[in-house]
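Subject: for your reference before the review

Hello V.,

The reviewers asked for a structural picture of the protein, and I figured it would be easier to keep everything in one thread rather than splitting it across files. Below is the amino acid sequence we used in the manuscript, unchanged from the supplementary table.
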Amino acid sequence: MDRFRSRLAGFGRERPALSLLLAVVLVELVGASGSLFTVQGLDLWYETLERPALAPPNWVFGPVWTTLFALIGGAVWLVWRQAEAAPRRVRVALVVFVVHFAANLAWSLVFFGLQEIAAGLAVILVLWLLIVATMWAFDRVDRRAALLLVPYLLWVSFATYLNYQFWVLN
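And here is what came back from the structure prediction:
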C-alpha cells in the first residue's frame, strides 16, 4: 500500500497538469451523477412548484455547477499533492471531503429524486456544515484549497435560501 501511495504521489509531482486534469474530471463526473436525480424530477415536478422570486432560470445551474466542480477538483488536487508532507492531515481532509461530497449528492437525491423539500432543506443544512468542515480541513493542508471552496460555500448558501423558500411556498 505504501508503494502504491508513493507512486501515486510521484505521479502528481512528475505530471502536475495531468494529475490536476484527472482530479477535476473525477470530481466533475462524480458531481454530475447527482444530475440524474435532478433531471428525473425537473420537468414533471420542479416545474409545478411555486418558485421563489430570486430563483434563477434552470439553464444557470449547469454552468454554475460545472465551474464549482472544477474549483472543487482543483482544491482536492492541492490537498492530495501534500500527501507526503502531511499524510495524516491529508487523509483527514480527504475523508471529510468524501463525506461532504456524499451529502452533496444526497441533496439531489432527496430534493429532486424523492421530491422532499423539507428533507432537502435538512440535507442542505448538513451539507453547508460539511463544506465548512471541508474548508477547515483543507486549510490545515493548503490555504489555497480552502479558498477555492469559497464560491461553492456561497452558492450552497444561496441554494439553502432557495430550498427554504421552496419549502415555505410549497
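For the response letter, the relevant points are probably these. The mean pLDDT is 92. The two ends are 51 Å apart (CA to CA).

Happy to draft the paragraph if you're swamped.

O.
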